[in-house]
Design brief:
single chain, mainly alpha, 3 domains, 7 strands, P-loop_NTPase
């Protein structure tokens, strides 16, 4: 069992000081204990609308009022993008929130220690409903208690998202469960459909963020966060109590146009402990007042956000070519490892975009990626050395998808723009170089993540057709590559990749020979690529199909997977 706690966020001193939506949620919680009232709520709104900020505020207020039963915050990082631990986490938190629950649930676990490997539905019955029934009448603790589940859309498996909604609905309908449940997510089609269907829809209240005055919420958030910076920043004592002025706050609210992502990026940037917050706020105000457009164009709805991104990314001490390489590499690596997670559940080498992974794959000096990203913490999560040493590999992520959208548009990102074709060619050449180097050593994937990712990349990008993924992994972009890049690619001996699959395919796929059934070269107008690269693989596949998978070398060690 493990916790998914709410991170720090805006924390009003009392309910009455909160924005309107939190006041409405407060009223919903207060009435949830009354007979016949709804006990399931869904907060829905687009990306960047402030859903997580709202949930964190509610969680902190409920915790202060001793009515928080439990919370589960989904996230994009590995381990928080699945629902496997949802019920166990809530049961663990109920041990502190519900008198007598700890003893009751421990008795259930003692009867079946394999319970955590059972289905979520079985866990719901045995870890929550059965212990609550054993406790009997709740008596004094039957006050409105709250369970918060945030970021359901971050759960990557749509089937798990649907199951989670039905489980949470079942919780609120059970006679022994004295809690209300508040879920937040983007209105993804599968989530929207599940909430709109029987039996969930009649028992659920929906909070639509667009119906609220987001300007008031954003102003409230800014006041709280700038107060926190004045109190906690090393230079905070030098800031006057009137910093920032009311005029500055109102200008920021106007510039945000309802986008919490714009405001949270500013707060992250200004709160950077390495520089004076007053100077950083001045930089922000200058950037959004006189934005430098990379390309002359009509006014863009993202102009202010783009100006902020451009300001933060304009670090003179960083090599722009290396910065562009790393920025475009991050989402490309995630596309590959997340696609592979659809194909296998086996453990494998750690291939997510860690600083070590990027340095190794692109042949950079150790520490280069950390240096490049060291001043971009307002936009990008970069694991520090302590996290890596104590918790194993951690991965680089953009805080918001708008960053990737910015990089994909030349009129927005200027010299940091890179076409998808250039990215694919860059990765393909790096994959080839890593596999060619590997062919001289035949090293294990656990000691050569560059070759392991190179093999995975070439398989997914070039030889697996019709993969059920949200990403477009076709190779049509290579048709615009330069002759020199294509020649480097066409010279590669594809049998090296087949050799890697033969030796270590089990490290990427639980049934490597079964996976080879999907190895079907993609269509391409590049005759050289078809004749010299893709067609020969069909012969190699036939040979590999004759191999007994039991005879393949087993992994030397069990390595956790990013997938």
């Amino acid at each position: 069992m493990h916790r998914h706690p709410a991170k720090s966020g805006p924390h009003p001193d009392k309910w009455g000081a909160s924005p309107p939506i939190i006041n409405d949620i407060k009223e919903f919680i207060a009435r949830a204990g009354e007979p016949g009232c709804l006990r399931l709520a869904w907060i829905s709104g687009p990306a960047g609308a402030g859903k997580t900020c709202i949930q964190r505020s509610v969680a902190e207020e409920c915790l202060a009022g001793t009515i928080l039963g439990g919370s589960f915050f989904f996230g994009r990082d590995s381990g928080r993008d699945i629902a496997d631990g949802l019920i166990a986490t809530l049961a663990h938190q109920f041990c502190s929130a519900v008198p007598g629950f700890r003893e009751a649930v421990l008795r259930k676990i003692a009867l079946d220690i394999s319970i955590f490997s059972k289905s979520l539905l079985v866990q719901l019955q045995r870890l929550i409903f059965d212990p609550l029934e054993d406790i009997g009448e709740p008596h004094e603790w039957i006050q409105p208690k709250v369970v918060i589940v945030d970021g359901l859309d971050e759960c990557r498996d749509t089937a798990q998202r649907k199951q989670a909604i039905h489980l949470l609905h079942a919780l609120t309908q059970h006679s022994t469960f004295p809690f209300c449940v508040i879920v937040s997510s983007r209105p993804e089609l599968d989530i929207l459909t599940t909430f709109a269907e029987e039996p969930v829809q009649p028992d659920m209240r929906r909070f639509l963020l667009y119906r609220y005055d987001s300007d008031e919420d954003i102003l409230f958030y800014l006041v709280e966060e700038f107060l926190r910076i004045r109190k906690t920043h090393p230079a905070g004592h030098t800031l006057p109590a009137t910093w920032p002025t009311r005029e500055v706050l109102e200008m920021l609210v106007k510039m945000a146009s309802g986008q919490f992502i714009f405001i949270s990026t500013i707060v992250n940037y200004v709160g950077n402990g390495n520089r004076h917050p007053g100077t950083l706020l001045t930089n922000v105000l200058s950037a959004i007042s006189t934005p430098k457009r990379p390309v002359a164009a009509l006014p863009s709805p993202f102009a202010d956000l783009d100006a902020l991104y451009t300001q933060i990314l304009s670090v003179s001490s960083i090599d722009r070519l290396l910065l562009r390489l790393v920025l475009h590499a991050i989402p490309e690596i995630w596309r590959i490892v997340e696609t592979n997670s659809l194909l296998t559940e086996s453990g494998g080498p750690e291939l997510g975009p860690s600083p070590l992974m990027l340095d190794t794959f692109f042949g950079l000096l150790p520490g280069t990626t950390n240096i490049i990203l060291s001043q971009l913490s307002a936009l990008i999560h970069v694991p520090n050395q302590h996290q890596t040493e104590t918790h194993g590999p951690a991965y680089i992520r953009f805080y918001h998808k708008s960053m990737e959208d910015y990089l994909k548009a030349p009129e927005r990102s200027g010299d940091l723009f890179q076409s998808e074709g250039d990215t694919v060619a860059q990765f393909t050449i790096a994959a080839i170089q890593n596999l060619q180097r590997w062919s001289h050593t035949l090293g294990s994937p656990s000691g050569d993540c560059g070759a392991a990712f190179g093999a995975l990349y070439l398989c997914l990008r070039f030889t697996w057709a019709h993969i059920p993924t949200q990403y477009d992994l076709t190779i049509s972009e290579l048709e615009a590559a330069t002759d020199a890049k294509l020649e480097n690619i066409l010279r590669f001996d594809f049998t090296i990749l087949l050799g890697w699959i033969l030796l270590y395919g089990r490290r990427l796929w639980s049934q490597p020979n079964d996976m080879l059934n999907h190895l079907k070269p993609q269509n391409t107008s590049l005759k050289g690529l078809r004749n010299r690269w893709l067609r020969p693989i069909s012969k190699g596949v036939k040979i590999l199909h004759t191999c007994d998978p039991i005879a393949l070398p087993a992994p030397e060690d069990k390595v956790s997977t990013v997938m």
